[in-house]
Each structure stands twice: as structure tokens, then as C-alpha cells.
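Hi there,

I know you've been waiting on this one. I reran it after we fixed the sequence typo, so this is the corrected version. Both the input and the resulting structure follow.
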Amino acid sequence: MAGNQQKWSAEVARHSDALDLDKDVFASRDPRAIAKSLKHSAEESHRRKTTPFRSAMSMLTFHINRAGTKLSRSQKKVLEAAKDELRREFHR
């Protein structure tokens, strides 16, 4: 069953109807760069089904949740900080 879950999340990441993400956006060590990239992708997307803010935040949260234990503590901290930066980018 774990194999199916991995395939499911990888499929969502590759073929999301919400956003076309920049390559390796989540590997960045700069929370602001991650937030700016997600904002740009969300605003440019014509396939998203909700507001740009919600689409961007959903993709970030999805990545954090799906990476699970494979995400280092330091990178998880960067991604959590990217959530705050994303809120700032969208003035929320």
C-alpha cells in the first residue's frame, strides 16, 4: 500500500491541475524565493480552481505533508517560513 501512496503523491506533484511549478522550487534554502516562485506560478496559472493565494499555500502544504520523514529538519523550517513569506506576498 505504501507504494501506491508514493505513486499517488508523485502523480499529483507531476500533473497537478493547479500550478506549473518551477523546477526544484522546494529545494531552495530561501523562504522568500520559494514564496515568490509559488506566487508567480499561482497568478500565471489558468487551470487553478481557487484564488492564487489558496493554490500556492495548498501546494506548499502538500509538499511539506508528502515529504514527511524524508524532509530534513532544517528544510522543513525553511518551508514553514515560506508559508509566512507567502502570506506577506499576498498581504494576508
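Quick highlight: The chain has a mean pLDDT of 84.

Best,
R. S.
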